[in-house]
């Protein structure tokens, strides 16, 4: 699993890649944490379960990242480790995940930005010709 961020006007793009769709989604989540602080500074202490469903993979990525933003805001937490499964059939796509993290400590985590949500801008979820999955979108900061 790998992750990266990219510039996008006043917002930030997040991108995850992996051998599986689940790895790419985990990478996108890690990239979103990196917009806020160094993911390595976040201890994966406390597990939080998250489930999402959407009609397609692209909307599932937006729902997944938005669910993480919601949990960060309401639990006052940051996340650094993600385990998930993604399933799809004719009825749509489903995700079941556990995100591990810890409560925000401003002095230690030094948050650089607050992610307000995931957007449809530059939204892309696909498997490349090399077999590697990519999951990306822009997050509003």
From TrEMBL:
InterPro entries according to UniProt: Archease, Archease_dom, Archease_dom_sf
UniProt keyword annotations, A-Z: Calcium, Metal-binding, tRNA processing
Any Pfam family: Archease
Ranges where the Archease domain occurs: 3-141
Family that this chain belongs to: Belongs to the archease family.
UniProt-recorded name of the protein: Archease
